[in-house]
Write a structure and sequence with these properties.
Layout (H helix, E strand, L loop, with lengths): L4 E7 L5 E8 L2 E7 L1 E7 L6 E7 L5 H23 L2 H17 L7
Antiparallel strand pairs: 1-2, 2-3, 4-5
Helix pairs in contact: 1-2
């Protein structure tokens, strides 16, 4: 069975993203985004191909939160894939630090 994910990026005259819209077979309502990070691991070259986009409307505090949440997701994914508790915990320590420095989290 195949599933589709569609990402539509509307650009302004300077080729800066104005909007990022994600829709797909398993997405009941299209998602209007302000930023996205897409990473694909190339099985042949063993390199990661990335696309990072954000709109002019994205505020710095929103980028802080976006990166914080993305780092948490990466750490969770890394742990699920490797079961490397020690390194996953080290990643979580940095994420805690990042969250405190950006004031997303309060200092413990």
């Amino acid at each position: 069975m195949n599933k589709n994910i569609n990402i539509e990026v509307k650009l302004d005259t300077t080729k800066t993203p104005e909007s990022i819209i994600c829709s797909g077979d398993d997405i009941p309502d299209a998602i209007q985004g302000k930023a996205m990070m897409l990473s694909l691991f190339d099985a042949n070259s063993l390199d990661t191909v990335k696309i990072d986009l954000w709109t002019n409307e994205l505020q710095i505090n929103e980028m802080d939160r976006f990166v914080f949440q993305s780092l948490r997701a990466i750490a969770d994914t890394y742990y699920k894939a490797t079961r490397n508790t020690e390194l996953a915990n080290d990643m979580q320590k940095f994420i805690q630090y990042f969250g405190e420095r950006t004031e997303i989290l309060t200092k413990e």
